[in-house]
Specification:
Helix content: 25-40%
Oligomer: single chain
Order of helices and strands: HHHHHHEEHEE
Number of helices: 7
Radius of gyration: 32 Å
Structural class: mainly alpha
Distance between the termini: 53 Å
Number of strands: 4
Strand order of the largest sheet: 1-2
Length: about 190
């Protein structure tokens, strides 16, 4: 059966493997070198998954609940009992994973607003000011009766410069004034 969720405000027991270890003596701990820290991972996603022996023993979801979920999602039910067992074990592992992630104590951790650098230096670097926009404002002009802002047309290349450009210079294979693209014929396979 699916376990009933806890009410808001109730604390969950915290698993020991997810909590950080506290220093047991009054001295400041020595900082380990980066190479020793990166040599072995400190945790694994597998630690959040149930053990292989536990997946089949305590089923979080019953067969009737699984069929109900299939009916709600408009999916066809499993064809065989073996398929049903595989789906139930996968769903049980996923529910266990979600419970383990939800049980992590996140007090004092700011929520992630976006996946980007949110340091004050990054904000200063991406801030749009008049100095950063000034080169682009110089490339605009006001034209017409309605005073629309238009980008100035850059100086047109002279014909000699355009004629001197070798269009086929980087082509691996050419025939006359054309480049050749080799395509594998799928009908000959």
């Amino acid at each position: 059966m699916i376990r009933a969720g806890r009410r808001w405000g109730q604390s969950r027991p915290q698993p020991q493997r997810l909590l950080s270890r506290r220093c047991q003596h009054n001295q400041a701990p020595e900082e380990p070198e980066q190479s020793t820290l990166l040599r072995q991972p400190s945790w694994s996603v597998r630690s959040l998954l149930p053990s292989t022996s536990a997946t089949g023993e305590n089923a979080d979801i019953s067969s009737t609940q699984l069929h109900h979920l299939f009916r709600l999602s408009a999916l066809p039910p499993p064809a065989t009992a073996d398929d049903e067992k595989k789906i139930m074990s996968t769903l049980s592992a996923q529910l266990h994973f979600v419970r383990e992630v939800q049980s992590v104590d996140t007090t004092g951790v700011e929520p992630l607003r976006s996946i980007r650098d949110e340091t004050p230096e990054a904000y200063r670097e991406t801030e749009v000011t008049l100095e950063t926009v000034q080169p682009f404002l110089g490339k605009e002009e006001i034209r017409g009766w309605n005073r629309r802002i238009r980008r100035k047309k850059d100086a047109i290349l002279e014909e000699n410069e355009a004629e001197g450009w070798d269009v086929l210079g980087h082509a691996s294979r050419t025939v006359g004034r054309y480049f050749v693209v080799e395509v594998e014929d799928s009908s000959k396979k």
